[in-house]
Amino acid sequence: MIKAKKSLGQNFLIDQNIINKIIDLVDIKNKNILEIGPGTGSLTLEILKKKPKKIILVEKDDKLFDLLKDKLNKDVEFINKDVLKIDENNLNKQILTVFGNLPYNISTEILSKWILNLSPKKVWFNCLVLMFQKEVANRIISKFNTKDYGRLAILANWRLNIKKIMDIKPNSFQPRPKVESTVLFFEPKKNFMKFKNAKNLEKITRIFFMHRRKIIKKPFNQLFNNNENIASELGIDLNLRPQNLDFNTYYELTKKYEFLRS
Ligand code: SAM
What we know:
The protein is an alpha/beta fold. Helices cover 35% and strands 19% of the residues. It contains 10 helices and 9 strands. The chain has helices at 16-23, 42-49, 62-72, 107-116, 134-140, 151-159, 199-208, 217-223, 228-233, 247-261; strands spanning 12-13, 32-36, 54-58, 76-79, 96-101, 125-133, 160-168, 173-174, 181-188. A 7-stranded mixed β-sheet has the order 4-3-2-5-6-9-7. Strands 1-8 form a two-stranded antiparallel ribbon. α4 packs across α6 and α7 (199-208) packs across α10. The termini are far apart. The mean pLDDT is 96. Bound molecules: S-adenosylmethionine. S-adenosylmethionine (SAM) is lined by residues 8-13, 36-40, 42-43, 58-61, 64, 82-84, 101, 103, 106.
């Protein structure tokens, strides 16, 4: 019996019905697959049944990694590393289809890193099927003027089309997590605003959302040196709160910020 490590966000899927639903979301046959955190292999085994061309597994836990290696013993590429430390852009020559019941403690970090490091020209995945804590998923799919809306949604929607697939109850996992989970499906956007450096979008949203309840006049002036004409140009009312600006306004602000600094 494997003792799950809380520090590595280990909640293993045990509900075969849910496992099948996740696997059936995308075409796997002859595709190049990447799975993050395969754990005991519940998703991995089902993926292999669908005959992918190749599968790459990234698992940080040494013990699980060894167990899985013995169990699978197939044409699988094993990477015993922290997913945050791999260079995902150069993981595989061909485009990857990604699965991950993500470790909850670092799920937003993984998604943010992938988006910030995405090349404007060549995207390394065709889709992502990822599981998050429901509360985190709600933030990712949130829209402006709602309480969940914030930096994560603005960043994710910049490069990705996002679809909610399903909520999953705690009793589908062993050990049972305290909260519900949600599976999201992501595809790269073909059209998106090009920035010199995606970190500027991160910076703008960090400063705007520093105080959610306060009006945006102060963060705006901090970033744009009190040049309130820019706000008028972009049609932004500085008496609004950060959650009242839609995605596109944040992308426009980033573009303007970069332009003024060039
Ligand atoms: N895929 C399995 C399943 O659905 O039953 C396990 C999912 S469990 C929620 C998360 C997995 O990610 C665990 O196997 C854990 O060891 C692994 N993990 C945690 N942190 C990691 C990291 N930084 N890099 C790679 N894998 C990690």
